[in-house]
Sequence to fold (125 residues):
Amino acid sequence: MKTKNLALALLIAFATQGCWYDNEEDMYPSQNNNSCVTDNMSFTSDIVPILTSNSCISCHNASMSSSGVNLDGYDNVKPWADNGRLYGSVNHDNGYFAMPQGLPKIDQCQIDKLKAWIDQGTTNN
Ligand code: HEC
Fold:
């Protein structure tokens, strides 16, 4: 009987929650899913929004460059991409300061996009 009730509850949950799958993605962002597009990364439309929405720019800009890191604008971001510290810090790799400081790790898809942009040659586009 118990199992039957559970099955019924799940059925109702499925039937009434239109955003079931969306919620699952929010809850498990590290899960590999096909919705993360990493082709042809653009600095302006892919990378800048990641740095802005995760407060990176708030702590790393011309007037407040925490630890000497300024992430405002391509010329300032590129050296940190090239020396591996941008990726190492957001991916919480050993030997790097975990970023964003004091905040949870950013979405895996955003980390993948940063990695893809670096692998694609840190294009200024
Ligand atoms: C609350 C302020 C704050 C935020 C938000 C923040 N940082 Fe930092 N960041 C720092 C400080 C402070 C340091 C110096 C490390 C330390 O002293 O702990 C640092 C260091 C770094 C470094 C150098 C890492 C190293 O190992 O040398 C990079 C790269 C970096 N941050 C990138 C980022 C990125 C990318 C984001 C957004 C995902 C981000 N930061 C968000 C404050 C911040």
About this structure: The chain has a mean pLDDT of 86. The longest helix spans residues 2-16.
